[in-house]
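INTERNAL TRANSFER SHEET
From: sequence group
To: structure group
Subject: BTB domain-containing protein

Please process the attached sequence and return the structure record in the designated field. Keep the field labels unchanged so the import script can parse them.
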Amino acid sequence: MQLETDHNYSTSHNDIDVDRLKYHPEFSSQEADVILASKDAKVYFRVPSFTLRTTSGFFQTMFSLPQSDTSPPNIIYLDEDADILECLLRMLCGFAFPDIVSHDTLESLAYAAEKYDMAGPLSLIRMYIMTTTLSDPIRLYAIACRHGWIQEAKELSRRTLSMNIYDQTHRSTLRALSSDAMLNLFVLHRSRKDELEKALNSPPFVSGGASTCIECHHPIVDYTWKLLKGKMLAEMDKRPLGDTILDEGLSSWPEAISCWKATCPNQPCRRLLFDRSETIRVIKNCIKELKDTV
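Return from structure group:
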């Protein structure tokens, strides 16, 4: 049996005693007429051809070709290792599958499911990436982009906002993205800083330069606000989600404390220049309104 395809696999006929092979215990039924072998040929899986034909476009095409009537059944050697093949077949056959504990495993499963045109496992993986506890949203975003899962890619791009994607530790992961996916992610992160800067330079904030006290109209050089604004924008480079600004920054940063203590330089007035709670509220609203997905 031969099939013109880009996928790597091979078949074997009667030169192997199939009864002596090491089968996975949940894929060992004698009634199954197809044997799938893992890459290292250490574990074999007996699966009904009907299941493969009806759930995989790849195997549907394979089994539509003329078949020789051989007994025992053919062995099909695939290029996935035993763990990947087991999880994929569990999804395909409706069995419970174990937690996917690494990004590499998730990527390999998604790749194999797409390669063999298995819509069922792909749908499960698509849902899984939104609920998994795997910790790197950039790699999950890469999987979603690679498979054209637009809504999942948007949500996962939001999760990257807690990361500094300019950090050297993420370079290898970012290289796995397509040019468009990478550019969209960088634009999202940079635009949040730029848009916040624009908002902080617009009313009701003072954009810079000299202003006057609203109580006594004494001239004021608002340097404390300038320093706090610079600190907030620097923080947005490191963590564009902006939560550290609101949760800790505006209450504990030296720049924030100086700003809340700043008073009118006119001795008879000494009015506080900033309403702390109102200023924090407006900053919070500015961050909330920033675009948060690609």
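Handover comment: The chain is about 50% helix and 5% strand. The longest strand covers residues 9-12.
Transfer complete.
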